[in-house]
């Protein structure tokens, strides 16, 4: 199962963020050219129309569209008011006819979507997801939890958003392109630390490192040096964007589907492969490299070793 969190705009927590980075190998390290790192998050947050039609719920606080009520015995239905088992308060349930995902309340004021009752058609999922988020937001829900089974991984690009930017200083061919944030890691800075810092500086988004997804190695790039470009996954801890006016023209959360469909992305075979890898990671069909602190007996230095965790009890491929 892949778990994603969908929250209202002021408190959205996302499934994950992807960040890209670059580093130059050189006999003399200039801290401004050492390494570039940036990632883009995939956030589950959508806006939709507000449809308010009263509906009922089952005794376990499961939300049901009105058309589904007729197939359930009256003994299993409550009225349009339900009692909150935690504090005894009541709240009215609203939903649109066949336009809200089947879900039930959690004990923290959120909603848990039933992964076994998701729409079979991806296009229907898009529409219903948008309407459901709007509906739950109007109900004052603090968060929405969605777990996608591996066999439904085709829904990942629909349920996910990425953090994208438009740079102020860009080549004419890149005008209008929304790209994943990128940057450079400073001298003596960890790859994951540089990724977190660059995202914060350019977009104001706080994140935590998950893993390195892949990296590209090219030669004769800047200063005729070799270039390492890291693709990492970060988990967003905030969602309010505050751009760096010196470098960034604009930034936003963009549906992954829209991001991938940009012509410049479609025409770049390497970047399309990067997107495929990221989607596979979200669908738990791929594992990245986690950072592990270790001390080598050879030099006595604390270092970061990046590798896949293979122990089942500490497996890092499960979605966060």
Shape: globular
Number of E-state strands = 18
Task: Provide the gyration radius in Å.
Answer: 22 Å
Share of residues in strands:
25-35%
Please list the strands of the largest sheet in the order they lie side by side: 1-11-10-9-5
What is the name of the CATH class of the largest domain? Alpha Beta
> Overall pLDDT, averaged?
71
Number of helices: 7
Straight-line distance between termini: 10 Å
Question: What is the structural class?
Answer: alpha+beta
- Largest sheet descriptor: 5 strands, mixed
**What do we call the CATH homologous superfamily of the largest domain?**
Nucleoside Triphosphate Pyrophosphohydrolase
The structural domain count equals 2
**CATH topology tier name of the largest domain:** Nucleoside Triphosphate Pyrophosphohydrolase
Write the CATH architecture name of the largest domain.
Alpha-Beta Complex
Low-confidence stretches: 1-97
Which range best describes the helical content: under 10%, 10-25%, 25-40%, 40-55%, 55-70% or over 70%? Answer: 10-25%
Give a short overview:
With 320 residues, the protein is of the alpha+beta class.
Could you describe the 3D structure shown?
Helix content is 19%, strand content 31%. It contains 7 helices and 18 strands. The chain folds into 2 domains: 2-44 and 160-295, Nucleoside Triphosphate Pyrophosphohydrolase (Alpha-Beta Complex), CATH 3.90.79; 53-151, no CATH class. Strands 1-11-10-9-5 form a 5-stranded mixed β-sheet, with no helix packed on it. Strands 13-3-2-15-14 form a 5-stranded antiparallel β-sheet. This is Nudix hydrolase domain-containing protein. One of its GO terms (molecular function) is NAD binding.
């Amino acid at each position: 199962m892949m778990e994603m969190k969908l929250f209202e705009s002021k408190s959205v927590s996302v499934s994950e963020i992807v960040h890209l980075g670059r580093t130059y190998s050189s006999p003399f390290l200039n801290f401004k050219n050492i390494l570039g790192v940036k990632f883009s998050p995939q956030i589950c947050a959508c806006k939709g129309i507000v449809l308010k039609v009263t509906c009922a719920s089952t005794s376990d606080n499961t939300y049901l569209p009105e058309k589904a009520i007729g197939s359930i015995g009256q003994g299993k239905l409550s009225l349009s008011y339900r009692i909150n088992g935690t504090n005894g308060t009541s709240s009215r349930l609203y939903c649109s006819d066949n336009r809200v995902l089947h879900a039930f309340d959690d004990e923290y004021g959120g909603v848990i979507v039933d992964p076994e009752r998701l729409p079979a058609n991806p296009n229907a999922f898009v529409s219903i997801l948008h309407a459901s988020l709007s509906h739950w937001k109007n109900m004052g829900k603090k968060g929405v939890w969605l777990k996608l089974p591996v066999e439904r991984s085709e829904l990942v690009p629909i349920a996910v958003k990425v953090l994208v930017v438009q740079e102020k200083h860009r080549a004419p061919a890149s005008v209008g392109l929304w790209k994943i944030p990128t940057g450079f890691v400073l001298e003596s800075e960890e790859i994951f630390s540089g990724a977190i810092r660059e995202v914060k500086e350019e977009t104001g988004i706080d994140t935590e490192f998950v893993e390195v997804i892949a990296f590209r190695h090219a030669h004769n790039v800047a200063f005729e040096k070799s270039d390492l470009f890291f693709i990492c996954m970060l988990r967003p801890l905030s969602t309010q964007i505050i751009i760096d006016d010196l470098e960034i023209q604009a930034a936003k959360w963009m549906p992954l589907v829209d991001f991938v469909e940009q012509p410049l992305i479609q025409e770049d075979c390497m970047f399309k492969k990067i997107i495929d890898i990221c989607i596979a990671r979200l669908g738990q069909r791929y594992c990245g490299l986690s950072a592990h602190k270790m001390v080598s007996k050879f030099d006595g230095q604390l270092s970061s070793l990046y590798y896949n965790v293979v122990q089942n009890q500490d497996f890092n491929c499960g979605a966060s």
